[in-house]
UniProtKB/TrEMBL annotation:
Record-level Gene Ontology MF annotations: hydroxymethylbilane synthase activity
One GO location term (cellular component): cytoplasm
Residue ranges of the TM segments: none
Chain's role: Tetrapolymerization of the monopyrrole PBG into the hydroxymethylbilane pre-uroporphyrinogen in several discrete steps.
Span of domain Porphobilinogen deaminase N-terminal: 51-267
Signal peptide boundaries: none
InterPro entries: HemC, Porphobilin_deaminase_cofac_BS, Porphobilin_deaminase_N, Porphobilinogen_deaminase_C, Porphobilinogen_deaminase_C_sf
Protein's name according to its UniProt entry: Porphobilinogen deaminase
Family to which the UniProt record says this protein belongs: Belongs to the HMBS family.
Region (Disordered): 1-36
First-level EC class: transferase
Coiled coil start-end: none
Keywords on record: Heme biosynthesis, Porphyrin biosynthesis, Transferase
Length: 377
């Protein structure tokens, strides 16, 4: 559980030091009560209700929380909002390779503890970073409209190349995602891969460093676009781009908001932010991943396209870490509600299993003695 010193408020209106804020609230209580109850009591006060928005502290995470705040303000101008940006264990541990790191919950559990004790009302996440199984009493309150879900190439400043096809033998691609490296190895066995850690800004400075090792980075378009760095994108990597052929991570590009199970007040407030197509596609992708028991650091790629309203096309791939083996499948079908989406993902996962996905996934998990799942990448 985090200390209050780890909380930082970046609200757009003047806010008290959150430490003081929290203590003030507690001192108002007459009888000992849980923070959850305190929250419910506050909702009935005359003064404006404040919605406490939790986020990790990276620049991208804070930008995302600010986007959510702006949307909430539009939907409910009568409420107050505060952003609490918090360092998480995942942010602090920059040295352990992501796939050795273990449960993705590491990225979020301090925030979830604060959600549980009522300090926070909601947490803004990238859907991609959310484990398929959330901790008890935590649920996804809404999935928002998806930003571009594709992966992209960002070439080092000063290099004349734009895409992977042009890179010479031995050029170093910076990525910490085995999903990305394994899929690129399939097509480009002559390229080299090197881990690159830190938030998106740090990664870009490592790329551009004069004495740096990397020729390019592979990142999600969504993060780059939200940071307003879209002019750095030199190639989009989706199944349709020539020389691309990379399927993105489950949930990539969509923001998800985590709330307490049964918190009807916050869930209702989030209603207007939900996007149906993103929700159904995200649900189908997560169902596929859950069925295959893959984490974010297992090389499972997906691509979902709405062919027409209610008709979803989903491609999926499972690749061995060295890129030498893979199974691919796709499915086209009607997805009108969450149940359809769940079944759709489950069905496609089973097609992959029939084609041999289990063998690839087991080999990966056997080589990873610590924990199967991985951190965000
Ligand atoms: N933890 C890394 C992470 N989590 C989500 C995104 C991209 C933004 C998104 O998918 O919404 C990124 C950065 C990246 O992969 O380039």
């Amino acid at each position: 559980m985090a200390t209050h010193e780890q909380l930082e408020s970046t609200s757009s209106r003047p806010v008290l030091d959150p430490t003081v804020n929290v203590q003030e609230k507690s001192s108002k209580e007459t009888a000992p009560s849980t923070a959850l109850k305190r929250n419910a009591e506050e909702a009935n006060l005359d003064e404006k209700t404040t919605i406490h928005i939790g986020t990790r502290r990276s620049a991208l995470a804070v930008v995302q929380a600010e986007m959510v705040l702006a949307d909430l303000k539009k939907a409910h101008p009568d409420l107050n909002y505060e952003i609490h940006a918090m360092s998480t264990m995942g942010d602090k541990n920059q040295t352990t390779a992501l796939h050795d790191f273990g449960a993705k919950a590491l990225w979020t559990h301090e925030l979830e503890a604060q959600l549980m004790d009522g300090t926070l009302d909601l947490i803004v996440h990238c859907l991609k970073d959310l484990p398929t199984q959330l901790p008890p009493k935590c649920v996804i309150g809404c999935i928002m409209e998806r930003e571009d879900p594709r992966d992209v190439v960002i070439m080092k400043k000063g290099l004349e190349y734009k895409g992977l096809l042009e890179l010479p033998e031995g050029a170093v691609v910076g990525t910490s995602s085995v999903r990305r490296s394994a899929q690129i190895k399939m097509r480009y066995p002559h390229l080299k891969f090197k881990d690159v850690r830190g938030n998106v800004g740090t990664r870009l400075s490592k790329l551009d460093a004069e004495d740096g090792d990397y020729s390019c980075l592979i990142l999600a378009a969504a993060g780059i676009l939200r940071m307003d760095w879209g002019d750095r994108i030199t190639q989009y990597l989706d199944s349709k781009t020539e020389g691309g052929g990379l399927l993105h991570a489950v949930g990539q590009g969509a923001l998800a908001i985590e709330v307490r199970e049964g918190d009807e007040k916050t869930t209702a407030i989030l209603n207007k932010l939900a996007n149906e197509e993103s929700t159904l596609a995200g649900t189908a992708e997560r169902s596929l991943m859950r069925t295959l028991e893959g984490g974010c650091s297992v090389p499972i790629g997906v691509e979902t396209t709405w062919i027409e309203k209610g008709k979803l096309l989903m491609k999926a791939i499972v690749v061995s870490l060295d890129g030498k083996e893979h199974v691919e499948a796709e499915r086209l079908g009607e997805v009108l509600n969450a149940k359809d989406a769940d079944e759709f993902g489950w069905d496609l996962a089973h097609v992959l299993v029939e084609k041999g996905a289990t063998k690839i996934l087991e080999a990966i998990n056997l080589n990873r003695p610590i924990i199967k799942d991985g951190g965000g990448a």
